[in-house]
Amino acid sequence: MRGFHIRGAREAAKGRINSWQLFPIMLFHPLECYDMIKLERDTQIKVLPAILLILLAGLEKYAANFLVSFQFRQKDPGAVNLWIEMAYVVAPVVVWVIANFCMTSIMDGESKPKEIFVTAAYCLAPYLVLTPVGAALSHVLGDGEAGFYGFLQSAALVWVVLLLFFALLRQNDYGLVKAIGVALLCILFMVVFLAIFVFLASLTIQLVSAVQEIFQEIQRKIL
Amino acid sequence: MKRMITLIAALLFFAQAGLCVQARETDWVIDNDGQRLAVPKTYLVKGVITYLGEEGGNLYEPKDIFIDKEDCIYVADSGNNRIVKLDPEGNFVAAYTGGGTLLNPQGVFCTNFGSIFVADTGNQRIANIDERDEIQETFVKPKSELLMDSSDFSIHKVCVSSQGLIYVIKGQQFMTIDANNEFKGFVGANSLPFSLKRTLIRMFASQEQKSRMEMEEAPPFNNFVISDSGMVYGVAATDSARIKKLNASGANLFPGDYTAEPVYGEDGFAIDPDYVDIAVDSKEIISVLERNTGHILQYDQEGNLLTIFGGKGEKKGYFQNPCSLAVNSRGEVYVLDASTGYIHIFTPTSFMEHVASAICFYRDGEYDAALKEWEAVIETDTNYPVANMGMGQVLYKLDRPKEAMEYFELARVQDRYGKAFTDYRYAFIKSHFFGVVLAVVLVAAAAVVFLFYALKKTKLYIHDYHYGPEGGKGQ
Asked: What's the confidence (pLDDT) of residue B149?
């Protein structure tokens, strides 16, 4: 059970770890990966690869719309928008990071924003791997085997969610019950956050259009 | 003043130009996304019957039109209390009044043997009139325990099946009466959609409370027709399954999910449709008349929307208050306008004739002929979803799955694409058996090897991290 006690592990670490090595470690030994990111957040861990991973996930989601076989497509490729597809991946991750930081801060957690962000990015690893696999498989699966494709997609999603949950548990040294509680709080926070965001966005749009109208009115009346 | 006249002339000219632009040069269908998709003209106005000559006069508030085997046209001229018969060219032949007894007749039907059945609404009876305008027999409300004594027998539409049963609409279902005026049964009841409120009321309200509440009834049928194959086609004012195709036992055979598509008014907004009449032609193409927009929608037997044409307006081929339609043996559509008393006649274009024959050939299993017809259709309009779908189905039946897949993709039908692909895959594996086996084995082996390599590497990374690059080697 080496590595389970973070303080012990910190002293034992001697070697170096680079950003791309963390990727397979997250897939096969996620607990080690959480510890490494936590221990090395101020030394060896870089933010840029994490940003690239998130963007790559968004790009994969976008590209999958074109590369998946026609019979499994959920959208018409003509109606796919790069930014909207990217937002489907980036927005939940970013909101999760904010929610996670806010909630762990008040629930005596230990993680820092950078560490949460990098961990969340690496937690997308199963999605990054399984999406291309699914796209390739879709070209050999027949109509009776649609279940395999659906299973692969749900498996990737469940795997990512589990990774995020255990990261919360591990990096803050929570027990299982407390971790579940904090995770539920995080989800609640995300819902509220998104609701407020949508509300503010629509208000801003209305404000902008109101200012525009006033400007136009003045322009027509005076000029 | 001169300037004024020029201005008015110019305005009139532009108004005229605007009208020209408004006239549609295409008909349309609704695509998978619920958007209008233009298709070439499917029906042209052949003519309008407005005046029936000295003898016939005008129609006044007519309610129903029927076309018999010989293409003779019968109109229930309700306002004039008569039934009018026209020859296939639209010339007046005779008017029937049942010896002057018909009162506000709203439905008419003619059997293959020439006896005319009239829904004599004002007299609450069905009258069977012969060629000499004599009433042969009348049918009144039959006696049955299933019929409430108080309810009246106000019937609007009547049809007679080839077995000799008389069908009338009784609210949300059809009632059948035999030749002895005996009640035979109800068929094809519409059901009420599920409602939480009603369920709760049923669970908790007392008998007394329930009796005081207004009784909710399922949406009624508006009109119906019995096809040559003996199927009863009805239109009901429901949200889903507006078109029903009932067999003798009353089961609905029409694919219901296709009929719930949005119906758009002239302004482009979706409206609540009011389907008032239905007709089925010799090729089993179903025409439905929508009253609010004056649109005629045509479907094939699988529920695919073939075309939408017509509309409201003052011009030829546009209606004010369309109330009934019928189709003759040449596939010409006759639409009756209740407000003006005009009969508008539409004749299919060659485009539509190709579509209809393709569907017909496909149904009869003549796939090569169907292929030729669909090719002609696609030559005119490559974007027509029905054609791409039909082409895919024909090619699939002709055992050409690869091409079928292309057309199914164009028509955006995923399930059929999947079926065609499965067939294609089977044929491919059959012809390249060893190659496929080899490829599968190689890919599987490569995946396993890669997985083991990745696992081993990962362990090494972790080990190196904990003990340093050299640290673990010696242990």
From this structure: 65
Residue carrying the six token digits 């709080």: A185
Domain assignment of residue A93, yes or no: yes
Q: Token pair for residue B409?
A: 């993709």
CA distance B264 to chain A (A): 22
| Domains contained in chain A, number | 1
Which letter does DSSP use for residue B214 in this model? P
- What backbone torsions phi and psi does residue B174 show, to the nearest 5 degrees? -105, 140
**Residue carrying structure tokens 């968004």:** A58
Q: Are B236 and B291 in contact (CB under 8 A)?
A: no
Q: What residue has token string 């699988």? A: B302
Nearest in space to A140 (alpha carbons), one of A66, A71, A75, A74: A71
Q: Which of A71, A73, A80, A129 is the best substitution to test chain B (most B C-beta atoms within 10 A)?
A: A71
Helix (H) or strand (E) holding B367: helix B367-380
Q: Beta strands B286-290 and B295-299: pairing type?
A: antiparallel
Tell me which residue in A2, A16, A142 faces B422 most closely, judged by beta carbons: A142
Q: Nearest 5 degrees, angle CA A186-CA A192-CA A193?
A: 85
Residue range of the domain that includes A138: 6-222
Q: Which of B33, B421, B467 sits opposite A14 (nearest CB)?
A: B467
Q: What's the CA gap between B176 and A87, in Å, rounded?
A: 60
For residue range B65-124, what is the model confidence (pLDDT) as tens digits? 999 999 999 999 999 999 999 999 999 999 999 888 999 999 999 998 889 999 999 999
Helices A146-171/A176-222 angle, 10° precision: 100
Checking if the pLDDT of B474 tops 60, the result is no
Q: Kindly determine whether residue B455 and residue A28, on different chains, have CB atoms separated by under 8 Å.
A: yes
Tokens matching residue B260: 């719930």
The candidate with the shortest Cα–Cα distance to B363, out of B447, B301, B310, B407, is B301
Within a domain: A1: no
Are A28 and B454 in contact (CB < 8 Å)? yes
**Quick check: is A100 in a domain?**
yes
A73:B414 CB<8 A: yes
Residues in chain A: 223
Helices and strands (DSSP H and E) totals, chain B: 10, 27
* Residue of A13, A27, A76 lying closest to B465 (CB–CB): A13
Q: Does B421 touch chain A (CB under 8 A)?
A: yes
Q: Is residue A146 part of a domain?
A: yes
B61: left (phi over 0), alpha (psi -120 to 50) or beta: left
Tell me the pLDDT tens digit for each residue of B137-192. Answer: 999 888 887 777 667 788 889 999 988 899 998 888 889 999 898 888 888 877 77
Residues of B in Cβ contact (< 8 Å) with A15: 464-469, 471
Buried b (16+ CB within 10 A) or exposed e, B114-144: eebbbbbbebebbbbbeeebebeebbebbee
Report pTM: 0.80
